[in-house]
């Protein structure tokens, strides 16, 4: 692509991505700090991906997605995953109408723009599969009928890393369906002081819609036009392939630490998330820093560690750090 075309795309993106600042301002009315989480929520929303959030309770995960849905006037539903939950509680079911003598459809809470699947690992595999199928196919089948889900459709699933009792860990094949896995940490001391004051204040903050759903859908199409050089594509492939064959990339010490590497979904989502990240930064082209910024979130749930790595307390974070420090940046 010639330089003039890139400049035109850059100008277009710079203009069309102005609403990102409005979204951040509106969300920050209720969410203090947690910029990393908010940014990842926007990457999922604009990149047509879903997010797996891991963090202890009380870190504003529910509030964040609820605030985002209000800021774009979307429909929000929260599903609390419990051991007695059934697939029909999520997607809906057929209900017999005695008066009509016929079955009618009762749609489940999955029919919304934003779904918070709270503590997804608390429910058995059947329920997890029902949700993940809806995420992948963007449709559900109830009886003989297939129903498309709302657009945009974003699932934010949370996992509690503290309690392991009575949980059903998500298999690798299912976690691979999530575009990002984001780790949420505690707020800083100054941020928590503001959180306390806000919660004790009598003022109620009302979130106004600042972006339309149409704008989000149009932006998704625009993001596809963001320029990605072949060198950046090769950089993404080198990162992903080094998780599969570390030896070929001068990472011999990782060979015994990795059981399996990232799937092709990792490459697709790394490229897509890098484009969205460039859009959020109001640029019409991808730079290596965009790839590096979202690499941990895209790959941390796609790398399987060996028993040897677990015995040595080596984390996927450290593995990704080692890869990023070794692979040559274009």
Q: What shape does the CA trace take?
A: globular
What is the multimeric organization of the chains shown?
single chain
The neighbouring-strand order within the major sheet is 2-5-8-1-9
Task: Estimate percent helicity.
Answer: 40-55%
- Give me the Rg, rounded: 21 Å
Query: What structural category do the secondary elements indicate?
Result: alpha/beta
Q: Give me the count of strands.
A: 11
Write the CATH architecture name of the largest domain.
3-Layer(aba) Sandwich
Fold and architecture overview:
This protein is of the alpha/beta class and 330 residues long. It folds into two domains: 20-201 and 208-215, P-loop containing nucleotide triphosphate hydrolases (Rossmann fold, 3-Layer(aba) Sandwich); 226-326, Helicase, Ruva Protein, domain 3 (Orthogonal Bundle). Helices cover 46% and strands 15% of the residues. It contains 14 helices and eleven strands. The strands form four sheets. It has a five-stranded parallel β-sheet. The chain has a two-stranded antiparallel sheet with strand order 3-4. A two-stranded antiparallel ribbon has the order 6-7. A hairpin with a 2-residue loop joins β6 (139-142) and β7. α11 packs across α12. The mean pLDDT is 85.
Brief write-up:
With 330 residues, this protein is of the alpha/beta class.
What's the arrangement of secondary structure elements?
Blueprint (H helix, E strand, L loop, with lengths): L2 H14 L2 H9 L7 H12 L4 E4 L6 H11 L4 E5 L6 H5 E6 L4 E6 L6 E5 L6 H13 L1 E4 L2 E4 L5 E6 L12 H4 L4 E4 L5 H12 L12 H11 L6 H15 L13 E3 L3 H17 L7 H12 L4 E2 L1 H5 L4 H11 L4
Parallel strand pairs: 1-8, 1-9, 2-5, 5-8
Antiparallel strand pairs: 3-4, 6-7, 10-11
């Amino acid at each position: 692509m010639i330089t003039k075309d890139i400049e035109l795309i850059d100008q277009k993106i710079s203009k069309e991505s102005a609403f990102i600042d409005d979204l951040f301002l509106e969300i920050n009315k209720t969410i203090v700090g947690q910029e990393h989480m908010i940014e990842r929520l926007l990457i999922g929303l604009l990149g047509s991906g879903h997010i797996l959030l891991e963090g202890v309770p009380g870190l504003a995960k529910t509030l964040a997605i609820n605030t985002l849905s209000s800021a774009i006037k979307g429909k929000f539903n929260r599903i609390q995953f419990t051991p007695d939950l059934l697939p029909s509680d999520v997607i809906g079911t057929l209900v017999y109408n005695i008066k009509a003598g016929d079955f009618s459809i009762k749609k489940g809470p999955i029919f919304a723009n934003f779904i918070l699947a709270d503590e997804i690992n608390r429910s058995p595999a059947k329920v997890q599969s029902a949700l993940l199928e809806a995420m992948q196919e963007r449709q559900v089948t109830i009886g003989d009928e297939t129903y498309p889900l709302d657009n945009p459709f974003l699932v934010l699933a949370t996992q509690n890393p503290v309690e392991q009792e009575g949980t059903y860990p998500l298999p690798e094949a299912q976690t691979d369906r999530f575009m990002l896995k984001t780790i949420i940490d505690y707020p800083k001391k100054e941020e928590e002081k503001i959180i306390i004051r806000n919660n004790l204040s009598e003022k109620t903050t009302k979130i106004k819609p600042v972006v339309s759903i149409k704008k989000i859908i149009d932006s998704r199409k625009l993001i596809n036009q963001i320029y990605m050089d072949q060198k950046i594509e090769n950089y993404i492939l080198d990162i992903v392939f080094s998780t599969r064959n570390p030896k070929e990339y001068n990472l011999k010490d990782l060979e015994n630490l990795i059981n399996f590497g990232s799937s092709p979904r990792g490459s697709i989502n790394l490229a897509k998330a890098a484009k969205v990240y460039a859009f959020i930064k109001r640029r019409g082209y991808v730079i290596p820093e965009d790839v590096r910024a979202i690499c941990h979130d895209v790959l941390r749930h796609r790398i399987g560690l060996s028993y040897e790595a677990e015995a040595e307390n080596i984390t996927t974070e450290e593995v990704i750090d080692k890869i990023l420090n070794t692979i040559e940046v274009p």
